Each structure stands twice: as C-alpha cells, then as structure tokens.
C-alpha cells in the first residue's frame, strides 16, 4: 500500500495547488501566520497575519492543534522579564491574543504534559536559558488560559570547561518521555540533563537523579525514539541528545527504575559524520523523522553547501542494514537553503520540511522524500522582519 500512496502524494504535489499553514517566530518581535501554496511552476509563502503580542523576541512556538491555540515564548533578549502569550488561531489566519503572562527572562523551549489524576487541566514546562530556571504552568487547553505552578532555579559553583558559554546553568530544552511520566531538560551550561518525575495525582514536578553529560559538550535538545513494532512502551526506548558545544549526537538505551531513569550509551559521533565540525558551527534542533526510522538535526553556521548555506544531518536509528537498534548510522548532509538553520518541522500533507533560517531572516520549505526519509529540493522561501529562530506547521 506504501507505493500507491506515495504516487498519489507526488501527483498531488505537481498537479494541484495545495495550501498549508505555517507559523514562524521572529526576533523582529513578530509571530506570523503564513500560508504555503505548492504549485508545479512556483510555490509561494504568503503572510496571512502577524502579531506583536508575543513581545520583543519570540523564540519558540508550541501549537495545540486540537484547540487551535498557539503558544509563543518571548525570550525578551536584554529585558528583565520574558513572557508567554497564547493566541487563538482562526481558520482565516488571524491570531487573536488570549493571554499574556510575564515570566523570568529567557524562555527558549516548552512542551505540554499531563497527569492522569488531573482531568480538567494540562501542563507545560518551560526552559529559561538566561535565568537558569525551569518553570511549569497549568493550562486550560480549551480556553488557552494558563498560570504558573512551579519553578526551579539552579546555580553552579564555578564555570564549566567552556567558560564563555558555561558561566551558569542554561536549561535549553524540554522533552517528555514516551510513557508521559518524566520530563527531561538538557542544561547547556551545566552539562547535565535534568530529570523531573510528574506526580500522576496532581501534575507537580519532582526533581530526580539527573543524567551527567560529557564535560564541555553543552547538551541542548533531546528526542526519544520507540522502534517501529515495539510492543511495550517502556522496554524499548531510546534517547538521542544533541550537544551544541561539541557538535555531537549521543544515543542511549533507556531503562526505567522505581524513581527515575538510567541511560546506557550506544552511540557518540559528530553531526558531520566523518568530517570535523566547521569552526563556528553550532548544532541546534533534533527530531525523529515521520517514517520513525531516521534522526534529523540542524547544523547552524557550518556553510556546508556554500556561503550562508547550512546543513541538515540525517542519521538512521539503526545499523546500516536497519536491523540493530542499539546503533546509529550517519546517512549524510542535506542543504538547509540558508544561514543558521535553527528550528525545523517535518509535517503537512504531503510531508515537507519547514526551516527557520535564523540569520537569513527567512522561513523556507523543502520537499521531503518519504521513501528515503531525507530532505529534498527547496519549494519556497520568504523573508520575515528579523532573525527567525522557529517555524512550525499549522495543520
Ligand atoms: C512585564 O515585564 C516587563 C519587563 O520587565 C515590564 O515592563 C512590565 O511592566 C511587566 N508587566 C506586568 C504586567 O507585570
Ligand atoms: C477572522 O476570523 C475571526 C473569527 O471568526 C474574526 O473575528 C476576524 O475578524 C476574522 N479576520 C479577518 C481579517 O477576516
Ligand atoms: C521579572 O524579573 C524579575 C527580575 O529578574 C524577577 O524578580 C521577577 O520574578 C520576574 N517576574 C516574573 C513574573 O517572573
Ligand atoms: C476551560 O475553559 C473552558 C472554555 O472557556 C471552560 O468551559 C472550562 O470550564 C474551563 N475549565 C476549567 C477547569 O477551568
Ligand atoms: C567514515 O569512515 C569510515 C572509516 O574510515 C568508513 O568506513 C566510512 O565509510 C566513512 N563513512 C562515511 C559516511 O563517509
Ligand atoms: C554499531 O556501530 C559501531 C560503531 O559505529 C560499529 O563498529 C558496529 O559494527 C555496529 N554494529 C552493528 C550491529 O551494526
Ligand atoms: C544551497 O545548496 C543547494 C544544494 O547545492 C542549492 O540548491 C542552493 O541553491 C544553495 N543555496 C541556497 C541559498 O539555497
């Protein structure tokens, strides 16, 4: 059934105009609702609406698709406080502000979680890079209203090996484990992955034993993987972690204990395969591809495809024959079509890759090869009003 489906998807792409919704965050102070029209001759991204209500430095977007509510983190670079804004995203593309709340400075990534004992609310956790803090909010997913419930602030006795970047703890990512019991927060400054147990009765986070990363590696973002056909949700779980300061990918087999998780390393390698990382490059985002067999990683400022043309690295979550999961294989580098590719999202129908090209101040969309599970050619690109850290698909 795979081949006819693919054929339909491809002929769709070339014969009809297809519209898809995108959202983008710009450090110019705007959050955008964008429309992508894919056509045979020329595909185009156009602005449906834009809002300044996220604040001065929108850094991260989180979409609740079921309720059409978009959450935007304002890193508020240089300002005393960050903020979080929720928007109702209407079908005509307009973004209607629901609520805006001040936070401690520097929020950069968030993720939803829930607790079985709390039926009428969910939660989201936020990593604050600048203020060494992890905060938690309770949220009414239907209305898009939220309030702060917890925060954890960390300190270090001295700087880490990379003194310039590791002057203090810098929580950078928020990832929920596949069983929904734990939250992982890679801390770039402290070379630690902080781990929180979610109390199933009330949703409160409890700090448990962290995972210690290589000194100076600067863990940034993480993603879990459960192999296809895996039957039990906690016996076959892997974690992949990207380290911004060492430009490396590490892989672990995860074990669940009574009060926490343990990790046994199965892989460590550079995000350029056999090549050393170009000087000045910095890995950013990591995700599992839609086919659930590859890992996609954005390499910023590496100019791997020429000046201001960075790369997406693709790895297989297995050995070269796809049989042993306790292994990871480098597949190759693919063009990002711009400079400092940071956030990305593979989605929509047919699958495409949305790219936040921070220093090109643009959002781009590339085709996605569903058979090989790799990025393809550039379909469309649009300049926005500032550096673009994040872009995601709407529906
Ligand atoms: C939010 O923070 C900003 C910057 O610190 C401040 O100017 C503003 O008054 C704060 N707003 C509220 C409602 O506290
Ligand atoms: C879009 O839809 C919303 C909700 O129906 C409405 O309030 C708004 O005025 C519409 N905006 C435009 C530009 O049509
Ligand atoms: C705003 O920043 C100040 C100074 O860092 C901090 O004390 C305060 O708690 C922050 N406000 C909020 C709502 O987090
Ligand atoms: C959540 O919001 C919806 C829509 O406004 C409202 O009907 C519901 O009562 C709210 N739930 C809680 C627990 O506040
Ligand atoms: C990397 O180097 C090894 C050993 O030299 C070689 O076997 C392998 O084919 C190389 N892989 C790539 C992707 O170039
Ligand atoms: C796993 O990877 C390691 C290092 O890349 C390699 O030496 C080993 O042969 C691989 N194992 C399998 C089963 O492919
Ligand atoms: C980046 O590299 C790709 C592949 O070589 C090429 O198609 C593209 O035109 C280059 N430049 C930009 C800005 O996308």
Automatic annotation (TrEMBL):
UniProt GO MF annotations: 6-phosphogluconolactonase activity
Protein's UniProt keywords contain Signal: yes
Pfam (any one): Lactonase
Signal sequence range: 1-19
InterPro entries in the record: Cycloisomerase_2, Haem_d1_sf, Lactonase_7-beta_prop, WD40/YVTN_repeat-like_dom_sf
Superkingdom of the organism of origin: Eukaryota
Annotated keywords: Signal
Statement: the UniProt record of this protein carries the keyword Signal: yes
Family as reported in the entry's similarity comment: Belongs to the cycloisomerase 2 family.
Protein name as it appears in the record: 6-phosphogluconolactonase
